[in-house]
Known about the structure:
Blueprint: E1 8-13, E2 16-21, E3 33-43, E4 59-67, E5 73-75, H1 81-84, H2 97-113, E6 121-125, H3 133-138, E7 142-146, H4 150-158, E8 163-164, H5 170-180, E9 183-189, H6 198-208, E10 209-220, H7 222-228, E11 240-241, H8 244-252, E12 256-264, E13 270-277, H9 285-296, H10 302-328, E14 333-336, H11 341-349, E15 359-360, E16 378-379, H12 381-386, E17 391-394, H13 400-406, H14 409-412, E18 416-419, E19 425-426
Parallel strand pairs: 6-7, 6-9, 7-8, 9-10, 14-15, 14-17, 15-16, 17-18
Antiparallel strand pairs: 1-2, 3-4, 4-5, 5-11, 10-13, 12-13, 18-19
Helix pairs in contact: 5-6
The structure holds ligand DWN and S-adenosyl-L-homocysteine.
Ligand DWN is lined by residues 91, 95-96, 190, 237, 337-341, 361-363, 366, 396, 398-399, 402-403, 406.
Amino acid sequence: MRDTFLSHVRVFEKGTITVMESTTTCRICSSRVREFVDFGEQPLSDAFRDPAATDEEYFFRLAVGVCEECTMVQLMEEVPRERMFHEDYPYLSSGSSVMRAHFSGLARRFLDTELTGDDPFIVELGCNDGIMLGTVAEAGVRHLGVEPSGGVADRAAAKGVRVRKDFFEAGTAASVLAEDGRADVIYAANTLCHIPYIGSVLEGVDALLAENGVFVFEDPYWAEIVRRNSFDQIYDEHFYFFTAHSVQAMASRYGLELVDVELLPVHGGEARYTLARAGSRPVGASVTRTLRAEQESRLTDEATLTGFATRVRAIRDDLLELLQGLAKEGRKVVGYGATAKSATVLNYCGIGPDLIEYIADTTPAKQGRLTPGSHIPVVPHERFAADRPDHVLLLAWNHAEEIMANERGVRESGGAWIQYVPRVEVG
Ligand code: DWN
Ligand code: SAH
């Protein structure tokens, strides 16, 4: 059996072998991290491959552990950030109308409640294509997006958003402070959980945040991942899986306090945390309520975590059995949504082009490419609309309502959707 506390993993890079040591101590508090689920060797989730490429793919060991002290759930191993976030990072936040409404609504809320002073200033980490800051820019309010992925940052700039192409960390915060002064709001959606060096981010927040400012971030909520068995939220880019407990413990190490928690329906269940300087704002009832609920559901107890790992293995077996059965019957099975999440499902279950003919996706940078590791062709939506597949594996299940409404044709032509969270279902 693998020694989970002192594990080493081999990473093959273009013919040379690099030995990387896997994380064994908590990135927040340096205590011991206990591993509870292992998805094996996985590729970079957003590294959609040119079919003509001949270089070897990068793999790392995807496993998750929990800190025995501060309860932060985190990956055992870190992928270097430049491998994931670069000029060609393909994910476009604005690809979903539900998400566009979600973020413009939040921008308007910030404008009405937090950005009301003389010359307010908001900073967003990971602004992507400007899905949130576009509304702030339209309102003429001072803002800055900090976004390391050049291509998506350019799209934000084209919407009139002021962007700095950079990773946010303590050094970036110091330079933003020198140029623009303190921020009334620092915001990050689906980004803070992507940053293993979170201590540097929180030091940066401490330096940059106005005295009565707020640091607001939203990310997949660990309680929902456990409840829905949504194990595919676990992939290279998602390094942390927050709870109110772990966020509260983390905040207090940097002079910050958790003052509000809001549960969100998007992306399969997220939580939005608001931090303020300790003592600067009243702590809302939502904090106590969420902490109590987390305690009652024993979110990070051994039994909960082993139960989760067991259910994940069962989903893998059921999904594989279903797809193999359909292949034997000669059914036409395709996928929908070449998500980052799908890398975990496809590679963990061993699903390739023999079981899924192609995956339809609206993102131009993914089309014509192969999915990382599993090498399933990604095709434009038009091909999917013209075909009449028997079954469609919904890999973007977090957008199920939106997609199924747009793609009524699947059922109307006698086809069926396959879902795998919270369990394998066809219908
Ligand atoms: O945290 C992250 C989230 C916010 O976005 C990033 N690490 C990466 C990315 O994760 P993902 O790729 O799993 O996100 P989505 O939003 O589930 O991706 C949806 C995919 O489906 C996109 O490639 C676009 C595509 N899509 C489509 O083809 N038709 C989406 C919709 C709504 C559609 O109608
Ligand atoms: N906020 C968007 C994008 C999420 S994808 C949304 O919710 O849809 C994660 C984004 O974080 C990517 O665009 C990536 O380039 C960016 N990112 C990764 N590390 C970062 C860092 N250290 N600072 C700022 N952005 C970062």
